[in-house]
Amino acid sequence: MSIQKTLQRILQMIKERDTNLQEFFATLHPSDFAEIVADLTDEEKKELFALLSDEEAALVIQEMEEIDQVVLFQLLSKQRASAILKEMSTDDAADLISELPAKDAKELLTLIEEDAEEIRVLLKYPEESAGGIMTTEFIAFPGAMLVEEAIRRLREIATEAETVYYVYVVDEETRLSGVLSLRELISAADGTKLSEIMRRNVISVPAEMDQEEVAKIVSKYDLLAVPVVDNRQRLLGIITVDDILDVVEQEATEDLYRRIGATEIEHVNLMEAPVASIIAKRLPWLIITLFAGLVSGSIVGAFAEAIQTVVVLAMFIPVIMDMGGNSATQASTVFVRGVAVGEIKKEEQLRYFFREARVGLTMGAVCGLTVGLAAALWQQLPVLGLVVGAAMFATVTVGTVVGTLVPLFFNRTGIDPAYGSGPLVTSIKDATGLLIYFSIASIFMRYLT
């Protein structure tokens, strides 16, 4: 059944207050249900969630966008909202609480009583840290526990855990000692202690680690979950691969916005974002680009006499600027990605820069030779070919250097290098490209007239 038909079916059930909605819910994945909820009016949302159990409502809400979660929770009564919150996983509940107005968050935490402490613990960590995205719903047993006892205990508590793919082994002070996969546990002989079959070289992350670094570790070691520990190696929680996928999407979105000289509008649906907020996010970089454009215009103005004397020079301005822009964009994109995925380490960045300079020189030579020959043959003027070719060589080389140097500088100063790969690089490249072209043309002006 299509999403549209499903939506119509649900609307009909809401209208008739059909109690069979819970049976229908079982046929849908919660993420599909969440997509449908986003298309309902506020009143329809209230009526829909009145027909769902707390557990079903929690499953749907966990799949919704944060801004939609906040809107929905403000539609529900505090008693119903707190009941649903109790059914949510602790990390999702903490994320939702952090997005709510302070007064509402405090009231809900009071209502959920015993579950509030775990959520408060998660709220202490920075939002984009390992501690901020971890869940405290994991399975951990002491090393002295026997295999058959662990399996029996696992059956009892499995539904309460975020994932059962890994069983963590801890000592008396909850320090992380080892890890077992579910397959390793069930294939072990009865009477065997967990400490005898566990893997001791556990990949873990500190609670303060940035979420982007956590994502790299999970990707590198192909983990389904990674444990989070404090400075004494005590097990605090785990981060599952579904949360890592959200991190990857979030970080990719941030980098994309920064590359185009904008920032994401948080806590609001893009379709409902105020025009003033959108302008505030985009305008600053456009103003920078505007002033850079004025600089480029002044360069053209300074050489206006040369252009009027040799009009053919103007024909090659677009190709010179475009090729410089392309080379700069290529260089900055490759560098930013290399830093983001860990292929270019900090101690290797200067070596990478000099290698890119050699790449720029080679590409500049090829492009310069090609366009120089084309210009000379096209206009039957060898000197023009020399001017255009030399300008192309210099512009492509400088574009590659600037495209690498700017984000490298940003990275070295602690700023996200993605900021240096968009409008700033473009602005610098435009001004330098024009300056190079007209400077070379001025040197050979007497041979062009």
What does this structure look like?
By secondary structure, the chain is mainly α. It folds into 3 domains: 3-121, Alpha Horseshoe (MgtE N-terminal fold), CATH 1.25.60; 140-243, CBS-domain (Roll); 274-448, SLC41 divalent cation transporters, integral membrane domain (Tetracycline Repressor, domain 2, Orthogonal Bundle). The protein is 66% helix and 6% strand. It has 24 helices and 6 strands. A 3-stranded mixed beta sheet has the order 1-2-3. The radius of gyration is 30 Å and the shape is elongated.
* CATH class label of the largest domain: Mainly Alpha
Separate helix tally: 24
What average pLDDT do the residues reach?
83
User: What would CATH call the architecture of the largest domain?
Assistant: Orthogonal Bundle
Residue stretches low in confidence (pLDDT < 50, at least 5 long) are: none
Biggest beta sheet summary: 3 strands, mixed
Strand order of the largest sheet: 1-2-3
Notable characteristics:
single chain, 449 residues, mainly alpha, MgtE N-terminal fold, CBS-domain, Tetracycline Repressor, domain 2, 3 domains, three-stranded mixed beta sheet, 24 helices, elongated
